[in-house]
Amino acid sequence: MTRRSSVRDPIPLLFACLLLLAGCGYRPQGPGTGPEAVPPEIRRLHLAPLVNGTFKPGLQGLVGAAILRRLEQDGRVRLAPPEAARAVLAGTLTDYQNLPLAFDPQDIGRRFRVRLTLRLTLTPRGGDRALLKEEVAGEAFYTTGSDVVATRAAEEEATQRAAQELAVRVVERLLEGL
């Protein structure tokens, strides 16, 4: 009769602990992570109201709010009124796409991709030369619901997720790309 050891193998337990620590939200501190790592031109930033150049109403408010939230969460840039800012971030939503990706046997779209495109410009206050000028996009996917109301709700939720992804990309480009 053999006896099984009551002590478990410590390697899987150690591996699980390391995985837990890797995802705990730890952020290294030091050069490159604080406000001093941000170029002085954008430490005090004004986000101008976005322009909606698409057919979908209300997108400028949704995307603008998402960018503001993302900048506040990041914390490396102080938002300021136009007269106190060192730079102005402006943008125009140039495209809203709601494209079908998968169809049922009756050729009706069931899976869609929402894509938002923003042309952004970063200029120093009172300056005419752009520090940054490019297009950034965010996208999200959704599946149609059982009725029109559920499908509209799924589309709106995907539009919000696309706006959040767009905001993440704008802030990353702004803070890491200059």
Task: Give a verbal description of the structure.
With 178 residues, the chain is α/β, with parallel strands linked by helices. It has helices at residues 10-22, 59-74, 148-176; strands at residues 44-47, 51-52, 78-79, 87-103, 109-124, 132-143. Strands 1, 2, 3, 4, 5 and 6 form a six-stranded mixed sheet that branches. A hairpin with a 7-residue loop joins strand 5 and strand 6 (132-143). The longest helix is centred in the last third of the chain and has 29 residues, at 148-176. Mean pLDDT is 83; it is low at 25-32.
Radius of gyration in whole Å, from Cα?
23 Å
> In which range does the helix fraction lie?
25-40%
What kind of sheet is the major sheet?
6 strands, mixed
Give the overall silhouette: elongated
pLDDT under 50 segments (min length 5)? 25-32
Q: Structural class from helices and strands?
A: alpha/beta
What is the H-and-E element order?
HEEHEEEEH
Give the N-terminus to C-terminus distance in angstroms: 70 Å
Number of strands: 6
Q: For this entry, what is the oligomeric state of its chains?
A: single chain
